[in-house]
Amino acid sequence: MRIASRRNRAGRFLTPLPRVVQMAFTTSNALGVEPEKPAMKERASNKRFPWVAALAAAMLLTGCAEQAAVKEKPVPVTLETKPFGKTPSGEDVTLYTLRNAQGLEIAVMNYGAILTSVKVPDSQGRIADVALGFDSLDGYLEKQPYMGATVGRYANRIAKGKFVLNGKTYTLAINNGANALHGGIKGFDKRVWSAKAGNSDAGPSVELTYVSSDGEEGYPGTLTTVVTYTLGNDNSVRIHYKAATDADTVLNLTNHSYFNLAGAGKGTILDHMVTIYADRFSPVDSGLIPTGERKSVEGTPFDFRTPAAIGARIDDTGDEQIKLGGGYDHNFVLNGDNGKVRLAAKAREPVSGRVMEVFTDQPGLQFYTGNFLDGSVTGKDGVRYGKRFGFCMETQHFPDSPNKPEFPSVVLKPGQTFESTTIYKFSADASK
Ligand code: BGC
After folding, report:
1. Comparing C-alpha atoms, which of 249, 242, 245 is closest to residue 226?
2. Coil, strand or helix: which one is 292?
């Protein structure tokens, strides 16, 4: 776990916003964002990103039709808010839509700090929403497998829902066979977070805060978690996590987005080519609890060190671990330094040419290939999400770390600040 004592950077959110952003904010005063400054010039966003104009000029020179389209129709950087409904207990939910100068658009809501959509151009400029999810809040309120969600207080599994900390045994809510999964029955994904949106030099952002009370779902300590989504002009979706506690606790935060780079609902993800920069993975038992071993991927279907189609070995009946997971549902022990943001994984969809790269400072990545999707959930555009319609790359600490002293520690103590960054970066290429 990366622990640091950095200053609170929330002040960045009070920097002046591009006009389009501020126009959006004038419709919503609940956020306490500064009102629009009359002196602010139109298209302030272009001033912020002068290289956009230079890029457009370079594109024109290449004569590429798709790139020329970018020049003809400059896209302003925007951040819009709109009401997205109410929870059954009457709490207001707001949807924040962030758009960058390249036309990439994401939406985030304060229910579950959920990333509800990621709209990405392909190599021809055609946009598709690559994140599985729902058209309205109702779909997210029903039982659903954590689509787009921020997962906590402990993402992934804790064996038998028990762990010992400072000599005391804690008993968690059990919600996955005999085990605790993804923070319990009402984890962070089902809570309403407070939200603050604005703009930083890095791009439009939404900062979401949730205070989890001492004892919630069985976890000790009052834990304050801040998740910030920032949409960069390099087509990166940066997710920054920050947390502090008033008593010793355990913590593992992730984002549980399901991706299909052909577009959500467009069939399975079996043809995506995936690279995972991991020499080892965590074998599991029949309850998907790691055995504690860090096994070499060499000669197994878990070797993604060079690009391989997800579907190439996913039904390898000769591999015990594939059988236990019903496909891929395993933690990969990422190469490189735990605590340092590095490239962890990459996926490319061959027809659209869309590429997603995952960067993280976390030690692990749960590669889950939607093996439990079974058509029972109806998602965006009324499409039923079938088996392996999406894949997740959940950056994380290793599952069941509270019971595995040999794994990197997940203990957070009062006075420490947990900080972590994960980036999903999108691009498209037609060449390969
Ligand atoms: C887990 C899966 C689980 C899915 C949805 C993943 O993180 O590894 O086993 O089915 O989340 O809950």
Report:
1. 242
2. coil
pLDDT tens-place string over residues 251-282:
999 999 999 999 999 999 999 999 999 999 99
Q: What is the CATH number of the domain that holds 245?
A: 2.70.98.10
Task: Give the tokens for residue 264.
Answer: 């959500």
Domain count, the chain: 1
Residue-averaged pLDDT of the chain: 86
pLDDT given at position 73: 58
* pLDDT score of 166 more than 80: yes
What is the enclosing helix (H) or strand (E) of 45? Answer: helix 44-48
Q: What is the pLDDT of residue 76?
A: 75
Give me the domain span that covers residue 188.
Answer: 3-428
Segment 225-243, tens digit of pLDDT:
999 999 999 999 999 999 9
Residue pointed to by tokens 């919503």: 28
Task: To the nearest 10°, report the CA torsion of 183, 331, 392, 102.
Answer: 110
> Cα–Cα distance between 325 and 358 in angstroms, integer?
22
What is the Å distance from ligand 1's center to 368 Cα?
7
**Active-site annotation holder among 182, 207, 217, 256:** 256
Q: Angle at the Cα of 374 (from 344 to 129), degrees rounded to 5?
A: 50
Which of 182, 368, 394 to probe ligand 1 with, by most ligand atoms within 8 A of CB?
A: 368
Query: With a 6 A CB cut-off, is 368 part of the ligand 1 pocket?
Result: yes
Q: What is the pLDDT of residue 20?
A: 33
Alpha helices for 245-373 (secondary structure H): 320-325
Return the percentage of the chain with pLDDT > 90, whole number.
79
| pLDDT reported for residue 146 | 98
163 lines ligand 1 (CB under 6 A): no
197 contacts 222 by C-beta, under 8 angstroms: no
Contact (CB, 8 A) for 157 and 368: no
Query: Atom 4 in ligand 1: which residue has the minimum CA distance?
Result: 145
Q: Enter the tokens of residue 34.
A: 């500064």
- Of 217, 394, 397, 419, which residue is the catalytic one? 394
Backbone angles phi, psi at 223, to 5 degrees: -115, 125
Token pair of 239, please? 């997710």
| CA–CA gap between residue 334 and residue 363 (Å, rounded) | 6
